[in-house]
Specification:
The protein has 14 helices and 12 strands. With 521 residues, it is of the alpha/beta class. It has 2 domains: 320 residues, 3-Layer(aba) Sandwich (Alkaline Phosphatase, subunit A), CATH 3.40.720; 149 residues, no CATH class. Strands 1, 2, 3, 4, 5, 6, 7 and 8 form an 8-stranded mixed β-sheet that branches. It has a 4-stranded antiparallel β-sheet with strand order 9-10-11-12, with helices on one face. The protein starts with 38 loop residues before the first strand and ends in a 14-residue tail after the last helix.
């Protein structure tokens, strides 16, 4: 283990060298007379859409740990990320700012400018021990940004285990959390980021079936056709969700064992939607709508359901408020708004009527188009409608259909690299002309108009664009104007200076696999 794992993220933070801490300084059950500071366990999966947990009634997955958090606290039904890709979404969570407010960190696989102070650094400066295991912030390059460590904190990834299936990470998240806790001075509160790599692809194909699941157990989202191949792919997705959940359960049981469970703010959520066509990397419902459950001993009344509109970065100022910590005055302003009052309420349903909308957006995801171009869009979601503005409708939303191979030849049709390679994508491409498949294929990959409007209550799969329907003209106008107003308020370069914004967003360096595509005609 690194001997400076708890070193300061800010100049004002104390330097803590805690390797080899004596047993008497390790965590122990608290006595009734103690009133310790609130701890934080932030559990975040990689590529998981709402409603894929059993707490939401989804019969395809069994998530007893997530359900336990929900039962002990609040289950959120309208929680959304600010970006449908992991790197900008995680940066947004860590800074409490929208992706278009954090420069290169707001695009996928780029840099993370050090001027944007992150939650672990703020808490560390206030006396917290911080750390992470698994996937922190990423993909991207924090070293080139002048940072001394991952923005999620010092890494605890030393302990591995043999995973049950290929492509599941060997990282033993729960044991690494225990290692962090055993190294932490007993009198220090903590904030720990437990970031699973699951259920990010790749998946071992048919592992769900090999585990004893049946094809009929698969719960098909409304944007995918029904086929054995897709059902099996969904069962593999569910298997990885359950693996991640098992580590959360181990962490909860450990906290209970050492007497810290009731004094720990536990947050369970995801960074973006499922890695299937029309979900991840899309500002559509299943790309930005994620699970969220939060508990804190008897300080948060359990068994409650919230239908308030919440952006996941709202958790950043929420954590600060509950922990009694203030962000540095010289730090960039936090745009997100605390939901502490919702958590500490004793009510169900819509607790704060003013929280009636969320925003999301994306720029570049993977290297998927000519000259590494992105697919910029912004979205506004209310309790019923989703409005999406596509700034470059002439581009392919899921990436160009063919690429140039190293030998100069063209790849087979259907690469669409903004969609993770999968049996489901292969099925859509192979059967794209079949009447039963074509609408789903078109939804996933074909070019889109500059505006989209969906009635999520009637059409949760975003299959019918209402933007050109005269019956919805007033609704379209209201949401168009409201999104423009909110983007101006948050100083989105795409609205304030479109020409310069295009040059700036496209100029950010991408770290990772680069591809070559034919020049658009």
């Amino acid at each position: 283990m690194n001997k400076t794992i708890f070193s300061a993220g800010l100049a004002v933070a104390p330097l803590l060298n805690i390797t080899g801490v004596a047993a008497e300084n390790r965590p122990s059950p608290k006595t009734e007379t103690e009133s310790p500071k609130i701890n934080v366990l932030f559990f975040i999966t990689d590529d998981q859409s709402y409603p894929y947990t059993s707490a939401y009634g989804n019969r395809m997955v069994r998530t007893p740990a997530f359900d336990r958090v929900a039962q002990r606290g609040v289950l959120f039904h309208n929680a959304f990320v600010t970006s449908p890709g992991s790197s900008p979404s995680r940066a947004s969570i860590l800074t409490g700012r929208f992706p278009w407010q954090i420069e290169a960190a707001g695009t996928h696989g780029s840099d993370f400018p050090a001027e944007y102070i992150v939650l672990p650094d703020i808490l560390e400066a206030a006396g917290y021990c911080v750390g992470f295991t698994g996937k922190g912030w990423g993909p991207g390059n924090w070293e080139n940004s002048g940072r001394k460590r991952n923005p999620a904190g010092p890494a605890f990834n030393d302990i591995n285990q043999k995973p049950p299936f290929k492509y599941i990470s060997p990282c033993d998240y729960a044991s690494n959390f225990e290692q962090f806790m055993q190294a932490k001075p007993a009198d220090k509160p903590f904030c720990f980021w437990m970031g699973t790599h699951e259920p990010h692809r790749l998946y071992q194909q048919n592992m769900g079936l090999e585990s004893g699941r049946k094809l009929e157990e698969a719960v098909l989202p409304p944007f995918l056709p029904d086929s054995p191949e897709i059902r099996a792919d969904l069962l593999d997705y569910a298997t990885e969700i359950e693996w991640a959940d098992s580590h959360l359960m181990r962490a909860l049981e450990y906290l209970e064992k050492i007497g810290e469970l009731d004094n720990t703010l536990i947050i369970a959520t995801a960074d973006n939607g499922m890695s299937f066509p029309s979900a991840k990397a899309n500002c559509l419902e299943s790309g930005i709508h994620v699970p969220l459950a939060v508990c804190l001993g008897n300080q948060i009344k359990g068994g409650r359901n919230s239908y308030d509109m919440v952006n996941i970065p709202d958790l950043m100022p929420t954590i600060l408020e509950i922990c009694g910590v203030t962000a540095p005055k010289n730090a960039p302003a936090i745009s997100a708004k605390s939901i502490a009052h919702i958590l500490l309420s004793d009510k169900d349903g819509v607790i704060d009527p003013s929280r009636n909308e969320i925003m999301a957006g994306r720029e570049r995801h993977s290297c998927s188009r000519y000259n590494n171009q992105g697919y910029p869009c912004r979205a506004l979601r209310t309790d019923r409608y989703l409005y999406v503005r596509n700034f470059k409708p002439e581009r392919w939303p899921a990436g160009d259909p063919v690429r140039i191979e190293p030998d100069g030849s063209l790849s087979p049709y259907g690469v669409f690299h903004d969609i993770d390679a999968s049996p489901t994508l292969d099925y859509l491409v192979a059967h794209r002309t079949a009447p039963s498949v074509e609408p789903y294929y078109v939804r996933a990959v074909e070019k889109r108009p500059s505006e989209e409007l969906y009635d999520i209550v009637a059409d949760p799969g975003c299959m019918k664009n209402l933007a050109s329907d005269p019956e919805y003209a007033d609704q379209l106008s209201r949401m168009r104007d409201r999104l423009a107003e909110r983007l101006k308020q948050t100083e989105d370069p795409r609205i304030l200076n479109p020409e310069q914004a295009e040059k700036t967003f496209e100029s950010y360096k991408r770290y990772g696999k680069m591809r070559t595509f034919p020049k658009p005609e």
